[in-house]
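Below sits my pick:
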Amino acid sequence: AGKGVVEFHLKSLPMLEGRYSVSATCHSRDQLTVYHWRENMETFEVNSDMGDVGILYIPVEINVEAKSP
């Protein structure tokens, strides 16, 4: 009961270029009771020179090995 503050701190969120919006919901653990819902409460733009397509850039190392028949 009462008022409070919730803060989220992200060390890294490698988003690619684009326009994004933020929505937030507070609900019970079983998701049956919604206490508060804010849709598209903030918008922001990300500029990037990476030239990739998508939402996030997640660095990954890929190794492909051929198997003999």
Remarks:
- The CA atoms of residues 17 and 48 lie 5 Å apart.
- The two ends are 66 Å apart (CA to CA).
- The first strand starts at residue 18 and ends at 27.
- The chain has a mean pLDDT of 86.
